[in-house]
Write a structure and sequence with these properties.
Rossmann fold; alpha/beta; two-stranded antiparallel sheet; 6 helices; 29% strand
Length: 208
């Protein structure tokens, strides 16, 4: 089933061999509720609780390729969700710092990622809009929820030469952005394909 998924992604234009290899290796069904396991290798998003979703594999691959992950890079992920994207980044050799505002999802993902031993991943239950200033600067930042505008706080945690990949927009329309920090005050912004993500929210949501 993973081979079929990889073939489907190739057919949709995903050609990066490293990214395809890790997607073909990582068991996505581990990151889904039992009810969705049989569909785990469809190129679709699925609910994971708390009104959140696991992104479709094409979206994960697309964002990952834009990041151009290199070994030992420090990558900040805003929105751990199921933990699938963090595991992909870690398998590519990154040191991943992932932040989740939903306490229940944070706990689930932390346990699963520790069990899988998929790489160097540190999980944080925090307000993602604030980033992780104590661990900045980061080589790369990936945001897995759509913000109304680019968060300045996160931009400042990107090292010069670093890349942020983030969806921007509302439910009516979202575009993927790739932002490269050129200097202390200059950024290069590329507006790319349309996607659909859950909204980027501030604050934390404790487990009830």
């Amino acid at each position: 089933m993973r081979r079929k998924l990889v073939a489907e992604l190739k057919g949709k234009g995903i050609q990066d061999k490293r990214v395809l290899e890790v997607i073909g290796t990582l068991p996505r069904h581990f990151f889904l509720d039992k009810a969705f396991e049989e569909w785990a290798y469809k190129d679709s998003a699925f609910p994971i609780g708390n009104e959140q979703t696991i992104s479709q594999p094409y979206t994960v691959a697309y964002q990952t390729i834009l990041l151009d992950v290199q070994k030992r890079e420090k990558i900040l992920e805003i929105g751990t969700g199921s933990g699938y994207q963090a595991a992909i980044l870690a398998m590519l050799g990154a040191r991943v710092y992932t932040v989740e505002r939903q306490e229940l999802l944070y706990k689930r993902a932390k346990i699963l990622l520790e069990t899988l031993k998929s790489g160097n991943i540190r999980c944080f239950y925090r307000d993602g809009s604030k980033g992780l200033s104590e661990h900045a600067p980061f080589h790369k930042i990936i945001v897995t929820a759509a913000a109304a505008e680019v968060p300045e706080t996160l931009l400042k945690q990107l090292r010069i030469g670093g890349i942020m990949v983030i969806p921007i927009g509302t439910a009516a329309g979202q575009k993927m952005y790739k932002i490269t920090r050129l200097s202390e005050s200059e950024y290069q912004t590329e507006k790319l394909l349309s996607f659909r993500f859950v909204p980027f929210l501030e604050g934390i949501n404790p487990e009830t």
